[in-house]
Amino acid sequence: LETVEDIMKECQYFKRWLCLEESAAEFTISTIELDMRNEIRNYARTLQAPEYKSTLNNTIQLQLPSAKSLTEYYESHPELTEYTMKKELSRMDYTVHTKDGKRITKPSQIQAYQKEINGKNDLLWRCSNQSILGDVVAALTSSNGLIRPQMEAGTCVDYISLVVDFRNKEPFVRVGCFMNVSIPCNTEIRLALAGVLVMVYFCPGQQKFLGQVTRVFPCPSLTENQVNAAAESLSYYSYQPTKIKTGSPKFQPFSACMMEQGDEW
């Protein structure tokens, strides 16, 4: 049988072990947090670099699928016409230029025109929704891209407009989209890093599919408090992955201040 003295010694050893474990955990978290601070600063500096827009566009050009591939995709998804008509018309700003030169913008007018032309150029209606942006967003997502998964970076579409033009011999779709890029912070509002204007052009008849970043609006330099708060949040979730939050976070739109300065979409 163990004596009282033996039990007391074991308790002391256990307490020392607990202290060592806690110290190791604190050291691990602080090391991760320091690394995160450096990563956040590097991320922000990259977004502010004048040449970064060209870097992004080179990446898009290399990774964007061909117009033929995109055409084949939409040919195999006839249900997307209904999706555009029933879901997207009320969520995005649409402008349709009809074959006879009329300009229509109201959802009811666009739906009526789509029925009037009765399936002609149906491919344009199938791609006239947010799916047309998917390949560009995918090209911008990487460990050193605009959207960095390892930093829990996310995008919030602040504005999107879509033009469907039937006036030319070869009709086309053109999309303009303003996206905010942000990372988690230890508050309810995510930390905005940049606003980005993306343009996409698709003309099935000419087999042209183009995408590019036309403007990058980096946030003003981050404060130490902002960097530290974001690093604390990211390192916490890195150390305890089961604690990662899901759902749509609250986000402070960055593009609002850009619009006040007179920038056009």
Describe this structure in words.
Strands 1, 2, 3, 4, 5, 6 and 7 form a seven-stranded mixed β-sheet that branches. This protein is 45% helix and 22% strand. A hairpin with a 5-residue loop joins strand 4 (172-183) and strand 5. The termini are far apart. It has nine helices and seven strands; from the N terminus they run ααααββαααββββαβα.
Task: Output the keywords.
elongated; 265 residues; 45% helix; alpha/beta
Using only C-alpha atoms, the radius of gyration works out to 25 Å
- Beta-strand percentage range: 15-25%
- What's the tally of helices? 9
Largest sheet geometry:
7 strands, mixed
Got a strand count? 7
**Averaging pLDDT over every residue, what do you get?**
82
Given helix and strand content, the structural type is alpha/beta
Helix content: 40-55%
What are the low-pLDDT stretches, counting only 5+ consecutive residues below 50? Answer: 23-27, 241-265
Would you spell out the secondary-structure blueprint of this structure?
Elements (H helix, E strand, L loop, with lengths): L3 H45 L3 H12 L3 H9 L3 H10 L4 E5 L5 E2 L2 H10 L5 H6 L6 H6 L14 E12 L6 E12 L5 E15 L4 E11 L5 H16 L10 E2 L3 H6 L5
Parallel strand pairs: 1-3, 5-7
Antiparallel strand pairs: 1-2, 3-4, 4-5, 5-6
Give me a quick take on this structure:
The chain has 9 helices and 7 strands. It has 265 residues and is α/β, with parallel strands linked by helices.
